[in-house]
Amino acid sequence: MRCADTWQDYELIDATGHNRLERWGKTLLIRPDPQVIWKNQPVSPLWNRADAVYHRSAKGGGSWEQHRKLPQRWQIGWQGLTLIVSPTGFKHTGVFPEQAVNWAWYQAKIAAARRPIKVLNLFGYTGGATLACLAAGASVTHVDASKGMVAWARENAAASNLADKPCRWIVDDCAKFVAREIRRGSRYDGVIMDPPSYGRGPGGEIWKLEDNVYDLITLTQQVLSDDPLFFAINSYTEGLSPAVMEYILKTNLCPVKGGRTWCDEIGLPVSATGGVVPCGATAVWEQE
Predict the structure, then answer these.
(1) Which residues have a Cβ under 8 Å from the Cβ of 136 and sit 6 or more positions away?
(2) CATH 3.40.50.150 spans which residues of the chain?
(3) From the CB of residue 72, how many other CB atoms can be counted at a distance below 10 Å?
(4) What pLDDT sits at residue 197?
(5) Calpha distance 134→123 (Å, rounded)
(6) Which SS3 state, helix, strand or coil, does residue 125 take?
(7) pLDDT tens per residue, range 127-163
(8) How far apart are CA 51 and CA 66, in angstroms?
């Protein structure tokens, strides 16, 4: 497992009983996490000092119980980037801190290439991966179906002094956008995709990653350049093994592009216990 252990402004302080105690800058939040199935006694005394607790609703979604008035938004930093944090009604904050381990990997690959790199970031959310790639010198096409998330990503870019970097901000269905890029002959040296585990399209279509991941990968691989650098896919679906995603990449990309594949879990270190909470998986194809 690779751990996102380079944060200063974020900390997973403790985790037990399906909950995480986290520090976001100076703000302490308690959020549910289905992976945290252990029920040992809390170690940190800071559980009682949380600024807000997210409670799930039996009807879906949930709400924040504020013990102290939370700012609507605030900023945290990672490796020179600035990210806006804002607790949402679906427990998320706009930042997936475990992804920092992948952001650093993208940056290293782009820097080592020593040539212009074009990256396609699908399901780009609030832009953590986009910002990391821009800061490393790549040009990026950032795609997300949510207008609000793309606007949030652009705010993050401005806060990180990256607004003038070469980035296209696209609000669109990712698969439909890729299909158009194939017809246009657009090509990319790197692909990042962070698809949701489950969702519904604008026409009520049901999206399940397990059912759609193969078609999504085989479609998107068609926009890779003649000399591609990497193709990475992230998953938060517990029922989808990282080895399954790697197998799809290996059998589709290696015969055509060469290179190698690998996969692993990513996680966050727990400062109170020294343990690690798993936070999803990544599968990668890369040119050697």
Answers:
(1) 106, 107, 110, 111
(2) 97-286
(3) 6
(4) 81
(5) 17
(6) coil
(7) 999 999 999 999 999 999 999 999 999 999 999 999 9
(8) 6
CATH T-level topology, domain 97-286: Rossmann fold (3.40.50)
Pairing of strands 19-24, 10-16: antiparallel
User: Which residues of the chain form CATH 2.60.40.1180?
Assistant: 2-74
Other CB atoms within 10 A of residue 174 CB: 22
Distance CA 95, CA 74 (A): 12
pLDDT tens digits, one per residue of 33-69? 999 999 999 999 999 999 999 999 887 789 999 999 9
**Tens digit of pLDDT for each residue in 229-286?**
999 999 987 678 899 999 999 999 999 999 999 999 999 999 999 999 999 999 999 9
What is d(CA 173, CA 184) in angstroms, rounded to the nearest whole number? Answer: 16
First to last CA, the chain: 21
CATH number attached to the domain at 2-74: 2.60.40.1180
What is the pTM for the complete model shown? 0.95
Q: Angle at Cα 176 formed by Cα 106 and Cα 222, nearest 5°?
A: 55
Report the percent of the chain where pLDDT is more than 70. Answer: 97
Residue 2 CA from chain centroid, whole number: 14
3-state secondary structure 83-138: EEECCCCCCCCCCCHHHHHHHHHHHHHHHHHCCCCEEEEECCCCCHHHHHHHHCCC
* Model confidence at 203: pLDDT above 70: no
